[in-house]
Specification:
343 residues, alpha+beta, Beta-lactamase, 8-stranded antiparallel β-sheet, 12 strands, 31% helix, disordered N terminus
Length: 343
């Protein structure tokens, strides 16, 4: 169960699905965007797609307004059926899977995490909550360029066959809960716990993901990647169409409810968007990113500028898929912010 003290009291209310708008379990209800300046919207969208060589490429952009698909655009050979990388947006999907098991009474996020390697040392006190909030205290170098990177070793070299074990064997360098440090390894430790809880290896986990999350939302394209041990590589690898990523975003914008069914436990979305860490440039909740400049925003963020943005006050979900270097992502983000301001 969630503890009331973990939920911030000043979060923006999450909007309900308008009564006249059907849930997109089958097809999306479509409409025209209602904005203050249609020409400006067109210009900002053009700028997101018309990138120079240094800025990379945008494959897809979706805007969901009040539960309806009001913009659906593709480029560079992509289409509505083209599967896109999640990269670290998969972390937020991992958060949903944990929530479902919490709702079923199979996980307690405030209890010490069930990790065999930790039972004889100080790591045994690390909780699932601290893993979800990236504050485990474990050593992990999140670097996608340096040859000493733990995340590259985990995903592509020494740790690739058992990503959870690779991360779980890292030493403790801070007291659990005392330091925030973004680490893909912590998410894969969570995913190994999920596998052990669900049972049945990769096939059992896939069945659980489909039955409890994807199928109820009408998500048909989701293709998670598993390591050799059967652990979902939830730090990084889930492929789906942009419209299916948008369905996932709408689930969170609707407080974990879908067409009258409570998919996620009550309060789970607020738990995700309750701040764990904040600086002038970035903020984080629990496997979801927050925005220092826009307190009501919360989003799934992935390498190359992948985004599923939820804006409660505007009842918006915006999905952007593409390949943009980290140094250039602000260009995309600024234009998405400008688009939000038009609604």
């Amino acid at each position: 169960m969630l503890r009331p003290e973990s939920i911030a009291l000043n979060l923006s209310p999450l909007p309900r699905q308008p009564a006249a708008t059907p849930w997109p379990t089958g097809r999306w209800s479509r409409n025209q965007p209602v904005v203050s300046d249609a020409d400006q919207l067109r210009q900002y969208c053009d700028e997101i797609f018309q990138l120079n060589e240094a800025q990379g490429v945008t494959y897809a952009l979706q805007i969901i307004s009040q539960g309806e698909l009001v913009l659906d655009r593709y480029d560079a050979g992509a289409s509505a059926a083209y599967l896109q990388y999640s990269w670290s947006m998969a972390k937020s999907i991992t958060h949903a899977l944990v929530g479902i098991l919490v709702k079923q009474g199979k996980l307690d996020i405030y209890a010490p995490a069930a990790v065999p390697e930790w039972q004889d040392d100080a790591r045994r006190d690390i909780t699932l909550d601290q893993l979800l909030r990236m504050s485990s205290g474990l050593e992990f170098q999140e670097d996608y360029i340096d040859s000493g990177s733990d995340v590259i070793a985990m995903l592509q070299f020494d740790g690739r066959h058992d990503v959870g074990a690779f991360a779980a064997n890292k030493p403790l360098i801070h007291a659990p809960g005392s330091v925030w440090s973004y680490a893909s390894g912590t998410t894969n430790i969570i995913c190994r716990i999920l596998k052990d809880t669900v049972e049945g290896g990769a096939s059992g986990m896939l069945r659980f993901m489909n039955d409890e999350l994807f199928e109820p939302l009408g998500i048909r394209s989701a293709t998670p990647k598993f390591d050799t041990s059967g652990t979902f590589i939830g730090s990084s690898y889930l492929f789906a169409t942009p419209q299916d990523f948008a369905r996932f975003g709408l689930l969170y914008l609707r407080d974990g409810v879908w067409d009258g069914q409570q998919i996620l436990p009550a309060g789970w979305v607020d738990y995700a968007r309750t701040p764990t860490y904040q600086s002038d440039t970035e903020a984080y909740g629990a496997q979801w990113w927050l925005s220092p400049d826009h307190p009501d925003w919360f989003y799934c963020g992935g390498y190359d500028g992948q985004r599923i943005l939820c804006v409660p006050q505007k009842d918006l979900v915006i999905v952007r898929c593409g390949r943009t270097p980290v140094a250039e992502v602000d260009y995309i983000w600024e234009r998405i912010a400008a688009i939000v301001s038009l609604f």
